[in-house]
Amino acid sequence: MAFPDSQATDCSTRADYRDNLMTIEIKAELAETGPVYICHGATGDQHHILKVMPADDSPWANQQVSRYDDGEQMLPIDVVPAADEYQTFLPEGAEFKIHCPASGTDADLKLWLRSEFTAVPYGIDLHLGDYRRVIAGSKPPAGFPQLGEPVVAEITVGSFYISGKLLAAVDVEWLLDGELVQTVPTEGTGKSTVSISGIGLGEHTITASVYSEYDDSKTTHDFKINVISESPWKDATVEINGKRVPVDQPIWLPRGKSDNKVKLTAPLFAGKAVQVNAVDSDGLNIEANPAFGQDVPLDDITGVAEWTLTQDEAKSGQLKLVFLTTVVTPTLELDCRVMSDNLADEADVKIDGVAVPAGGNWFIRDKAQTVTLTPKSGSPLAGLPVTLACTIKSGLDVANVVSAPDFDSEQTSYSWAVTGKTKSGTFQLSLAGKGMTTPINLAISKLVSSNLADEVEVKIGGQSVPSGGSVFFRGQAKDVELIPKSGSPIAGYPIALARTATSPLLPTDLSSEPAFEAPNTTHNWRVTGANNKSGIFQLQLTAQGMTTVNVTANKLLSSNLADEVEVKIGGVAVPAGGNWFIRDKSQTVTLTPKSGSPLAGLPVTLACTIKDGLDVDNVVSAPGFGSEQTTYSWSVSGKTKSGTFQLSLAGKGMTTPINLAISKLVSSNLADEATPLLNGKVISDTGATFAGGGKNKR
Predict the structure, then answer these.
(1) Coil, helix or strand at residue 608
(2) Are 370 and 354 contacting, i.e. CB atoms less than 8 angstroms apart?
(3) Which of 200, 273, 408, 591 has the highest CB neighbour number within 10 Å of its CB?
(4) Is residue 121 one of the residues assigned to a domain?
(5) For 276-314, how does the pLDDT look when each residue is reduced to its tens digit (9 = 90+)?
(6) Is the model's pLDDT at 386 over the cut of 70?
């Protein structure tokens, strides 16, 4: 910012602010020119006027001067005259009108001036922002605070030029009787709130001071207080609709009613006039009878007076009732929350951040969940005591569900950590606002163990699962279901069925309806194995927050026993013509699972069907015929008679048994089985004679 000639190489700026007028004087004796502060929204009739005056010895005086556009920045403001429009640089100054739009961001700008000669342009620093501030609102402290109580005051800082624009991050100096106490920047809402403790008895002034760079000035607002040691209202009581209410806490006042009764009892002021005023910051349109601001005499003896409050519309909000009398300067103030008598109209409830479902919430033992109550938009509920209660519905003792803070204790933080323990069952949570008639009764909650096995029994095909797992047959669906144990509320909890398989069986060889891995609340699945493979697989039942139930060593088998085993008698495969049995000589029938077959452990039965010449008791087995066996070895013997019989083996649950070729039972004495003949005749006991050279027929 230098002039080209030696007579004016230094300069300074002095800003003179009168309403919207800014004057900048250029002086030769100083080196720096301070910035000029301009404001968003200073436009139209409230535009800025920048007046630049030459120093007394400046060669620019009385010459033509204009604004110069250096081409390096696009000014977000309008300046009149425009660039390159000259005017005479009179000793009393050259004027430029500056219009700043309301929108836009803060910026540091440069306004360049140049003379009609080829002098180096002169730059003026402009800072664009909200530099002219007003105190747009205030919230006074209690006029007569008690000694030892903190005094809270609040102001709202806004833009001078833009109505309704509230300014954040503006330092507000708070002073007590002229001495700085705190500097509290404004929040995003433009509010600066101070709390001052330790104020002594008597009258004091709290001052909020806001600095404006625009005109280097401070805007102040004073709050007058009188600190007293004891309230003259300390013995006064107030009743709302016949119920005594605490005067030092927020109280509930039913909304939309024409007959809210307010009763004041103040024996100290018996026979004196009292009036009640309303501070209605939420536009509740409440009227009083007797009217607000009207003197009402207290009863000469009891010191009682009554008012009826009426509200035509059911609107919620805050209302401050202020009782005052000319006898003393302190007032009695009631913080009233005009609200519905139904807490649900004023607040929403969530458990662990989620709205409560119609079917209620699930609680896992020893895992806390947070119950929160959030006032609805526009509701003045905050600060009104609310109680959380618990009612046991089934399976639990009172001590099994606890809360921090405790159930049934009045709270204003509206957050409770609820935990269940030891048992499973159901309970119901409810929230009640102090003085309200209708609480919020939440849907019934269920408390379950973190171990799913504590809550359910697994059944497959309608039967309890044996320790060795269940048997499935290829291509045949079988139901897997969970049965709640006695007293368990697990029905409806999302549970998924998963599976793994042991080679050669693959997980994809198994299918389910509903699908594997997808949680469902019916707790029933139809599981089907492949048509062409046998093997071992495992089932897992999973539920969020719970220990998995594993059903291991399940078998997938063919329904045809011959697909799974080989049969031998006496260690040799059964011939096509069947086996020979000698009376009283046992032979071992063995059944051996084929490679990869998981048959082992499945009960198999050996049966015998008499075909010819025998009685049922002529063929016996150890273990006995018809008995289920898992050792797969039978000692079979015949006796007394000769004949034929057929052995068959059937696997439990299988549809196709193994029918062995028909066996023959004969005596160990060939004579029991055949008669020798000689020339067609029976040989006598003495034998037969053979003639030499002759031929005998047998």
Answers:
(1) strand
(2) no
(3) 591
(4) yes
(5) 999 877 788 899 999 999 999 999 999 999 999 998 888
(6) yes
Handedness of CA 563, 565, 568, 569 (dihedral sign): negative
- CB–CB of 181/174 below 8 Å? yes
Could you give the CA distance from residue 466 to residue 173 in angstroms, rounded to a whole number? 80
Mapped onto helix, strand or coil, the DSSP state of residue 179 is strand
Q: How far apart are CA 543 and CA 456, in angstroms?
A: 12
**What pLDDT is attached to residue 329?**
63
Hey, CA dihedral for 178, 182, 183, 184, is it positive or negative?
Answer: negative
**Is 681 part of a structural domain of the chain?**
no
Residue 515 · residue 507 · CB < 8 Å: no
Last residue of a domain, one of 129, 148, 169: 129
The residue out of 424, 448, 472 marking a domain boundary is 448
Average pLDDT over residues 213-225: 92
Which CATH number characterizes residue 636's domain?
2.60.40.10
Residue 232 carries which DSSP code?
Answer: T
State phi, psi for 177 to the nearest 5 degrees.
50, 40
Which of 56-60, 102-106, 258-262, 585-589 has the least mean pLDDT?
A: 56-60
Cα–Cα–Cα angle for 691, 695, 696, rounded to 5 degrees = 85
Which range (91-95, 173-177, 396-400, 518-522) has the least confidence?
91-95
Q: Is 44 exposed, middle or buried (0-12, 13-18, 19+ CB in 10 A)?
A: exposed
Q: Same domain, yes or no, for 440 and 354?
A: yes
Q: Which domain holds residue 545?
A: 452-557
115 shares its domain with 10: yes
High-pLDDT (> 90) share of the chain, %: 70
3 state SS of 597: coil
DSSP class of 102: S
What are the tens digits of pLDDT across the range 158-170? 999 999 999 999 9
Report the DSSP beta bridge partners of residue 456.
484
For 3: left if phi > 0, alpha if psi spans -120 to 50, otherwise beta; the answer is beta
The contacts of residue 46 (CB under 8 Å, 6+ apart) are 20, 161
Task: Fill in the DSSP letter of residue 32.
Answer: -
Q: What residues are paired with 68 via a beta bridge?
A: 112
Q: Is the pLDDT of residue 580 over 60?
A: yes
Whole-number average pLDDT of the chain = 90
- Residue 609, classed as helix, strand or coil, is strand
pLDDT in the model for residue 23: 54
Distance in angstroms (rounded) separating the CA atoms of residues 489 and 624:
47
Closest CA to 121 of 66, 160, 80, 173: 66
| Rounded Cα gap, residues 294 and 557, in angstroms | 95
Say if CB 443 and CB 350 are below 8 A apart.
Answer: no
Residue 549 and residue 565 in one domain:
no
Cβ contact 555:469 at 8 Å: yes
Residue 415 predicted with pLDDT over 60: yes
How many distinct structural domains can be found in the chain?
6
Residues 319-329 as b or e (16 or more Cβ within 10 Å = b):
bebebbbeeee
pLDDT in tens, 424-445: 999 999 999 998 999 999 999 9
Given pLDDT bands bounded at 50, 70 and 90, which one contains residue 102? very high
pLDDT for position 425: 98
Which tokens is 170 given? 């503006």
Neighbours of 58 (CB within 10 A): 22
Query: Is it the case that residue 698 has pLDDT exceeding 60?
Result: no
Distance of CA 468 to the CA centre of its chain: 42
* Res 198 pLDDT > 50: yes
- CA pair distance 133, 208, nearest whole angstrom: 13
Residues 252 and 218 in one domain: no
- Whole-angstrom distance, CA of residue 263 vs CA of residue 243: 9
